[in-house]
Protein 1
Amino acid sequence: MVDLFGRDESLCLLANAAAQARAGRGGLIMLRANPGLGMTALLDAHSATARGIGMRTHRIVVLPPSGCTELSTGLPEWTEPAVVVIDDLHRADDATLLALHELAEGLHDRSLLVVTGRHRGTSPARFERLDRMAVVHDLLPVEDDAVSAVLHDVTGGEPPESLLRLADEARGNPWLLTRLTDDDRASAVTAWATDLAGGDGALLRFAAILNEPASVDELAAVAERAPVDVLAGVARLAALGLVEEQAGLVRFRHPVVRHDVAATSVGLRGSAARTLAGRGAAPAAVAEQLAHTPMDAWTLAWLDAHADRLATQPTPAVVELLDRAVSWLPPGNSRLHPLRAALAEALMWSGRIDEALRAANTSLAAHPDPPIRHRLRAVLALSCIREMDPEGAATALDPERVHGALPGRLAAIDAAACLLAGDLEGTERAVEVAAPEAAHDPLIEVYLLNVRATGLFVFRNLAGALELLDQADALLDISVSDRGQWLMSRLLRAVVQDLRQDRTALQTVEEARPLARVFGAGLLAWLHTIAALASFNNGMWDRALDEIDAAMSLPDLYGMGGPLHGVASSILLNRGDLPGARVHVELAEQSVSRGAAVFYEQITVLSRAVVADAEGDAQRALELVRSLADGAVGVHHGHAVSTVGARIVRIAVAGGDHDLAARLLAQMRELCAGESAGERNALMYCQGLVDSDVDLLLTAAEGFAQNGSPISAASAAEDAARILAASGRPTDARAAYQTAIDRYAALTATGAIQRADAALRAYGVRRGATGPRRRPKHGWDSLTAAERRVAELVAQGLTNREVAERLVVSVRTVDSHVSRILAKLGYSSRVEIVLGFEQRG
């Protein structure tokens, strides 16, 4: 029976209770569940099992609307052994409950089992005493394996990805899962939900059509009911398991129910839209309703007044509404050009770039007035910037240059395009054109703040860059609605934070990720690059590799292949996979930088130098380091040294070129103000290398460890150990060496450990019995950092798909992690992971 997938534990509990009752030890079992979780099917299956072992079964029916049962007039005489089953006990009258109280007191020495089922949230106070006298068993939503079994059963094979996504919205409700493939699903689900809701059915429909979460005040307005009455109705719906309410906000427990109820409640949307508009609700909330109603004069007038604002924060409903309005208006209507421009902008900010370009070009062909024309040119240029095509952006703006200097907003976009192309002089010229208008146009000011912040951190004024980004964020919070500049500000902030060795860089990346996914293309590839670098620098190498894998799955890397392969090469090299590191270096060399990637070319050169050094080709490694020192790499020339200085100074010292090392250190001192912990530690490390100063190296190692750069902390300790060993201080060398090895081991940097072993062995320093422990093969300590993260999220009750979304990896990757976790821990199910995690404390 489909509804019983995943109910083995419940069936076993009931079967054991029936067997005990048959032996003369009866009892009362209270089953509780939200609607749709298979209570009735479970009771039917239990009755069949009881009959199979020779017990009589009695099904007591609760009669609507009074709730009367055969227990209402007293206790019958049942021939024992027997099982009595009562479904829908929440509807029973008080007399039935009193009879059950009396019956339960004498069941312990009878061959009689009473099994009841009721809705969990309905009038819990009525059942408190019975719950104390009974074995209470809650039916919960079925888990992932049961969901898969249900879907295989209803489809007769492997369910498609679209059905799997829809199943997530059923939240493990078996009844809903079995309806997902029905042709009339929306009608069936709505009938089920509104039948449960009873007199609150209309309220449920209004909650479904409003944007989620719906506020009680909004519900009261559109339903034309008092807020106190709505709150009481919401409480009843919550007791049925249909919605959840917190702090006056209402959400559906099952998204598929909300979707289907909304689909059958279109007739309510027109009045809801007018009510919300009259209350001054957010335009997006009104547009959500109007997108499902016929176009009329009132809708068009309202849209004309709000289109510009809607276009900057579009939802699918906004795009649909604008598109219908443009199609509805006749040629020559005065509202047509502004609405076309708003549609093009909404399509762009929704990530539908090809459609945005078609809409913009079509509108330009109609020769609109200059203000509309400028908006459309902005769409063309910004769409090119999204594709990391600054030359295309400049070309899109060229037709406006024939009219003289670009207007302020287009000049600001031109500045961003020039910067993306690495044209710093062109950037300055465009900024000069745009700057006069920034004083009275906050959007231009935001563009220029982001552009100037980029210039400052390129030249290592990190504090100044953050100050400008703070100003941009303030304007974006208060005065400006521009999704592109908000995303740009987040990405730039993450870069600066990572340069400062600030762990919050990864948090900033996560703030930006949802919108980057909407925009896709070059901005998403850039986000993955920022995240990979920050994860690497913070010692989260599995996460860095996941980011690289995610980027590699994109149709185009938009020039980011160099830094991405460079990071992967460094990780593989440190983990002992030199052939794999070589492959990534070769791929990095083949990558052609464009757009933002031109600011990361030093990462590619560094990875080539590090691999050459590991291969013993010191001459080649030094040549590559000199190219950085000579300013031959990157659009910012010698400033590239500042971001990779510690690692290239190390290569110069190891290669015996002390002059090159000193030159690099001097460049770093000239470029870096030392205002952040990251910069101070890097300068201290490099000075320690150049001067063979053990104290500086050990101090830098501790600074790196405290400020989130574990690989640098390990390297600095290793370098200190080498100098101590070379100076005849083996005991001190061994202590520093052990610190380095412990830090490498935490990163599973087996390749770095092997190279350190070989280097220190030349001085007679060995770890011996005091070396670091190997990771055990079994138990919780055997889990890698990535596996521990997955285990923790599984223990929190997340499905594999939810874990994948949280960690931004594929479901397949999470499946593999879970399989390895189970194998290492000797477990056979996810439940054991939950229990084991809790027992660990």
Note: The two ends are 39 Å apart (CA to CA).
Protein 2
Amino acid sequence: MLLNTTKKMHARRNPNLSVTATAYSQLSPPVHSASLLSPTAASRRGLLSPPGPLSPSLPSLIPRHGKKQPSCSHSGLVKRSVLVIVGTALALWLVLHLMSERRTSQGLDFESSDEWEMVGGNSLPQEPSAIIVQDVKGNPKWTVSIPPSYGFPLRPAHYQEICQQSMELSKQLRQEGRASNSMVKRMLGYYTKDQYFMDVAEAEEQGLLPSSKANGRPKGFVDDEDMVAKRPQKEEEMKVCERSLTYVMETTDAGMGTTLMRLWMSYGLALKENRAFFVDDTRWPYGKYLTYFLPPPPTHCLPPPASHMLPCPHTAHHIIVSSATVRQTFGHAFSEEFEDARKMRVQRQVKIFGLLRTGYEALFKLRQDDAEYVGNRTQALYADVRKQGGKSVGVHIRRGDKHPFEYQFQKDYIPVDRYMAAAQELARSKPRKIVIASDDPQMYESPDLLPGTVRAQDRIMLATKSALEAAHWGQKKENPWIDDLTGWEGGFFKDVFFSLGRDGRSRAGSRAAGVEEEVPEQAMRLRELVGRAYLMDLAVLMQADGVVCGVSAVGCRILAVGMGWEKAIGRGDGGGTWRNVDGLFEWKGIIW
């Protein structure tokens, strides 16, 4: 079906939508059944059908032809007029009341109260949108139109809106399909193909979307091993990947741990689904991926056109995962698919842990100089105690803006002596080595630490403001960045991280919208130091014989992944050497 002869429908946000019969009459017949994308679509669709008589018992005021009208008194006319007015008012009230109830009942099924309208026309929408088209057989399908002018990646709000529109369109078409086909499933599983979805490539083949071509790797894509080694295959000799998953590292989360968990999970999922894996670091708050890690494994194929990479559905040939759409990829349907229902408690998570471990093994390879330091540091910390038959225990203490899950400490922090008691119990030997890492520099001087406790790494150390001023006494005014680096009193805080190297002006509004202006070079260098310190802390603790931490911190769950399932969790017999001190909670791959 040719593009210029096909009427398309796309979803558009309309907070002040008014429904009129005239507006609906302008929509083309092939798509009238999906003419409204809205939580109140079912009720409004009823407005399109010919209305029945409001009251079959109302008297007629028009004389009947051929019959003599009986005479009536003035009082009779008044009674009839009153009856007509009352009946009309009652009927009108009933209609309005019914419409209100339908809107309310329909609106309860959705998290968002936004209303949507379908716009018909022969031209594509100017913004990224989910749209309804007709395939060559005349069947309604939904797909996604991303204008080439938007490039890659889209803003988080675009991805969120596309997925919301897609769910509504899919539900609408399935509801109508279920009316004519009782075999249509009510709910879609994680790998169930939506029979009403048409992938972008297929829509282009049928002339429903303009043809697009792959233009090589987008600017923000991280170079893989082959490209960094200067041995890339000529692009003209490479084919576009048949299936791919691209992880977009853009996030408003100041912590690096959440990004790592999602990155590794995405890689593990891509490998399981036989998808090529790409990483985009265009707007990552920590800068460039290669500042911290070695290049990811090569893909040996080209990325698809940007318009082919969709945030949903998961069955699309080319998908993207980002903080804006992570619930689409790793939400309830994912848990239903990958949790082992035959097992109990944490053992249900073994498959999800496996995906993360796959990503960890492939991607957690620190840059060469940091990796060499970690190797030497772990040898110095752990070798002697192991030779003596003792054990080493790594302790991770997260403070700052992360508070525990345990109720009595939700507005405070878990006492240090609880960490030390768990470490002592885990070591169970006289020769032992306790190694600590914390976002709060004051923890290293806590009187509650066991004698002989040492810090995980000293290559990059976060310091309090008082320590900085003492180290730079007399040089404070000469170095303008000392005033900006306010120190880490109390630990890692989101606002402190985003203010590093800044002039102090608030930028919370832009970050909340998923957009951060260009970061000054000096500010990014400070962020890089924070990130590298965090990664080296984790890398050193992972090599200990056991780990003690609070599961509310993402870093704690990362440590378990680095240790491996058998060592950290065990077979359900309590033999694991990963210990949580934050209540009775267990390891979990996904915590929203």
Note: Residues 1 and 242 are 25 Å apart (CA to CA).
